[in-house]
Amino acid sequence: MASQDEDGLLHGKRNVNLENGDIQGEESVETEIKGPHYYSLPSLRYANILKTIIFIDGVISIVLWLTGGHSKYFVDNIVHFHLLASVFDLAIISSLKVIFFIVLYSWLEKISFKQTENPYDRNLQSKSKILHILIILLSTIFMVYSMTKGGLVLNAYLNQTDYLIMHATYNALVISAVCFSILEFIFSLYSFIAMRKLKILRVLHRLNDDGQEIDSDGKPVKKKPSLKRLASLAKPEFPMISLACLAMLGSSGSQMVAPLFFGKVVDAAQKDMGELNSTVLTLLLIYIGGAICSMVRSWIFTLAGQRVVARLRKNLFSSVIQQEVAFFDTNRTGEICNRLSSDTQVLQNAVTSNMSMLARYLLQIIGSLVLMFVLNASLTGVLLAVVPIVSLGAVQYGRFVKKLRQNFQDRLADAGTTAEESISSIRTVRMFSGETKSVKLYGSDIDKSYSEGKKLAAAQGAFDGTVGMLAYGAIILVLWYGGKLVYENSQDKTKGITPGLLTSFLLYTLQVAMAFALLSSLYGDFMQALGASLRIFDLMDRKPLVSNENGEILPLLDGHVEFKNVFFTYPSRPETPVIKGMNLTVNPGQVVALVGPSGGGKSTIVSLIERFYDPDSGTVLLGGRELSTLDPHWFRQKISMVSQEPTLFACSIKDNIAYGKVATDQEIEEAAKQSNAHEFIMTFENGYETLVGERGVRLSGGQKQRIAIARALIMDPVILLLDEATSALDAESEHLVQEAIDRAMKGRTVIVIAHRLSTVRNASKVIVIEKGEIAEQGTHDELLAHNGVYKRLVLRQLTAGGMNFDQLDINSIQNGDTVENGENK
Ligand SMILES: Nc1ncnc2c1ncn2[C@@H]1O[C@H](COP(=O)(O)OP(=O)(O)OP(=O)(O)O)[C@@H](O)[C@H]1O
Fold first, then answer.
1. How much is the pLDDT for 78?
2. Range list for CATH 3.40.50.300 in the chain
3. pLDDT value at 292 more than 90
4. What's the CATH architecture for 561-824?
5. Ligand 1 residue neighbourhood (C-beta within 6 Å)
6. May I ask which residue range the UniProt record assigns to the signal sequence (predicted)?
7. Which end of the chain is more exposed for a tag (fewer CB within 10 A), N or C?
8. At residue 760, does pLDDT exceed 70?
9. What is 1-47 written as a DSSP string?
10. Superfamily of domain 227-541
11. 42 near 201, Cβ under 8 Å?
12. Where in the chain is the domain with CATH 1.20.1560.10?
């Protein structure tokens, strides 16, 4: 159950009550934690402190050993090893300790953490014991060795007998080895007790139903963007990126040595033509090598970036598409699309090109500064005096600009959403002559983004100016001081520097200044990427509230549908209950008509049967089984829906009909024939290959409906959900659609949101839904005889419309109109 999360913390996710048993099976305390939760370990804890001490021990030992051993003495120390004069052994032991103990303690901690959840697991118990013994044994050996050596050295020093002169740092190394080994030994003994305390130390993270972490008051905890997770996106590209880094070393190297040769060219020009030629040739070769490396670096980094973003987009989209329908009620399409396009793009740049630039500029700065120090330390000192001012300013600017950029991006995203909404509903816009309104809305959003953009531009300008001034100021300072040194050199060759060296130095200064300026712009990019990553990871990690996976598959589905005391409220409108304690039964093979005033909850019932939403309480049963226990993929294959205004996809007729399953051409044609679509399809030039346009705009209403019926029929559904069209089709088209529907209904369980009296009359049962409750149910004749809501609904239509009885729209009473209201009018 325990796993390693992105922060390197151990955690175990559970949805059940956790028994807080003791590792060794001592008295256990049972704590009940309700809801999903997991544990992690705090970063400041025993094992981490211990690992840090061991690491410091290792670093100190190596540094003391290396700094103490210069020239011959250093080699002598290894080759002619002497227990009292060499410390090579202690340095090696310290390095080994770092490796052994860090691995062993991490392992031990992992096992101990598992033990807090499985305290009686014998396997874990014995593993933990073995590890403890191994750690204590090793630390004892290391301690005994260091103390023996320390004692012998001390003895030799006091008696001045065998004592050979050791470098001062070597003496320090012996003392540090003794002290650290005693400390580590004590820690290893205490680890027996400390590891047991993990269950007290661990941090409880509660999650809400949305999978978000919440605090003890139930409020969502604001997540922190994690650089580590950001970098982990490019993990599969690690080999590519390593290669690109190698190429980067080459290109940066060439850039770093080039100024040196520039200087040499200047000096050679004053001396010898042969030397000048060979130096220029070397310079040329350096540049060619650098250019090749640059090409490889840029190509591979960009390629890796493209791969990262392609994978990220696929994963993100697959996470989005799995979300429950309610998620899309509250999140605007444009916003989600923005995450997919621009946020992922920002991340692509961050994980590849920005990281490569970061490494490149850092290398450039460090490398150039080292070379500058070698060339002339005092001149470098002068330059470095200005660097802290520039970098401090750059960091402050980065912080400021991060906020500005975020605002700008947010406003731009709003504008994008507005544009998308208008364009995707262009027909409605045209119908109501809403072009001016749309332009105004979009314009006002763009104006807001522009006003943020103005601030950003001013900040950019101010920064460029200031950094430029500081950078050129530094160059002028170097020029003046360097010029002074060149002058001194011209007076006395032993003093100052040559003009060539000053040239090299100036070029290095430019290189460092440029790298600094570019680094500061990277800071803003990284901050922007962190923001984008937070939004992307939030979406990617979100677990759908209504799962699309797992569940039971029944050998047979008979079409039985039942609602048992179902209450439901749309999550996007939590204050308004829509279905209130509904009980209804649909038997296999029945045609059940749902009728009632608009907004009563008929479509909601259909959505609950499709499990687009889960009820707040009560159960929806399908084939006698609770819907939430069934495999959604499976049961949705058995239920087909034809809605009032069917949505087609922007592909061919053939692909639209076969949207729900892989079908042969023959099956597609058969379904089209059944739905009276075949004839009109054949009149098209491209037949079944005809493209229907976005949402099927290139087809008429009746044609769209018949394709949608064919799409439903090809699934051979057990249950057919129908929302009868209210939109007026011409008589011929209406007849064809109705005929197709009648054919589709045969031999199936049908739940139809009925608008036509002919449908209601032929239904096995009519259920009148009003304000989320069943007002009446029975057959058409029974309900008419009953003299209730249904009869009044029908009569109102008859008197109001004076139309053909069959064409009446029984549900056309407005939302909120009770039947009584209707009558009173
Ligand atoms: N996605 C949604 N989010 C929030 N509220 C919704 C949503 N869909 C519907 N509603 C609300 O739920 C109530 C019932 O709507 P529903 O569409 O089920 O009614 P209906 O009986 O099918 O109406 P009509 O005959 O007009 O289609 C209405 O008040 C409606 O505003």
1. 63
2. 561-824
3. yes
4. 3-Layer(aba) Sandwich (3.40)
5. 329, 570, 572-573, 578, 598-604, 811
6. none
7. C
8. yes
9. -EEE-TTS-EEEEESS--EE--TTS---EE----SSEEEE--SSSHH
10. ABC transporter type 1, transmembrane domain (1.20.1560.10)
11. yes
12. 227-541
